[in-house]
Amino acid sequence: MLVRPGLLLAVYGVAIFLSASLLFSVQPLFAKLVLPSLGGAPAVWSVALVFFQAALLAGYLYAHLITVYLPGRQSVIVHLLVMLAATVALPLGIASGWGRPPSQWTELWLLGLFAASIGLPFFALSANAPLLQAWFARTGHPSAHDPYFLYAASNVGSFAALLSYPFLVEPLTALSQQTRFWSGLFVALIVLIALCGLLLVQTRNALPAVPRDGGKAEQTPGWKDALIWIALGAVPAAYLVAVTAHISTDVAAVPLLWVLPLALYLLTFVIVFQTKPIIPHDVFLKIQPYAVALLLAALIFKDLNNIFAVIAINLGAFFVTAMVCHGELVRRRPAARHLTSFYLWLATGGVIGGIFSGLIAPNIFNWVAEYPLLIVAGLLCRPGLTIPREWRAWLSMLGALALVAFAVLCIRVLGIWPDALSFRGMVGVVLLVVALFLAHDTLRLAGAFACVLVLIYAYIAETGTVTTVRSFFGVHKIYESISGGAGVRVLMHGTTIHGAQRIEHVVAQRRGRPATITYFGPQSPMAAAFDGVKKNKGRPIRVAVVGLGTGTVACFLDQEDALDFYEIDRTVVQIALDPAKFEFVSSCKPDSRVILGDARLMLEDAPDAHYDLIVMDAFSSDAVPVHLLTREAMALYLRKLAPGGMIVSHVMNRHMELASVVAGIAAANGAATRVMHSSYFESEQYIFGSSVAAVARTDEDFGVLRNSGDWAMQEPAGRVWSDDYSNIAGAMIRRLQDE
Question: 29 burial class (0-12, 13-18, 19+ CB within 10 angstroms)?
Answer without folding.
Answer: buried
